[in-house]
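Lab notebook page, bench 4
Experiment: in silico fold of construct C2
Operator: M.H.
Input chain length: 192 residues
Purpose: comparison with the prior construct
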Amino acid sequence: MKKLNFDKKEYFSIPNLMGYFRIILVPVYLYVYINAQSSRDYYLAAGIMVVSFLTDFFDGKIARRFHMITEFGKILDPVADKITQGAMALSFSFRYPVMRLLLGVFLCKEFFMGAAGAYMMTKGRRMNGAQWHGKICTAVLDLIMFLLLMLPDINADTVKILAGAGIVVMLISLAAYARMYIAMWKEVREQH
């Protein structure tokens, strides 16, 4: 577990500006997707998300290549990821009712992660990056979201299978993170 130390110059590094851009794309995507009337509109929403995904890919590459990895960026990038995933889950819940359950689990998981992470930050601690189960969870959710985005006419049974898989993976990841945060909390208590 690391102690936090932000340098205010970090807020405006190129990779972090790209993270802000991804967050700005979220309401644009939501407007286009929720108001979609045709396949063309759904593909436009997909194009917006492709821009977001590419920005996510390149911000990390730029940060590593040009030594712009920042403590703030290590927090901003996953926050932008979660806002994007949440927006996509929200948008799909309008089209596919079963996605409301996935959205509910997603919100509970992220609320717990955010609250536990914020509490640990007040104690000067945070996770040392994403854990393997978190990366698998993100990859599975991204794949599900990508399929729903690129296949707007997917059948309801397939959506149920995808939603179920996403929910199971999120619950497993939540349980693993909860165990880690409990261990961190015990460590902090023992130090005081």
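Observations: The radius of gyration is 18 Å. Residues 13 and 84 are 21 Å apart (CA to CA).
Next step: discuss at group meeting.
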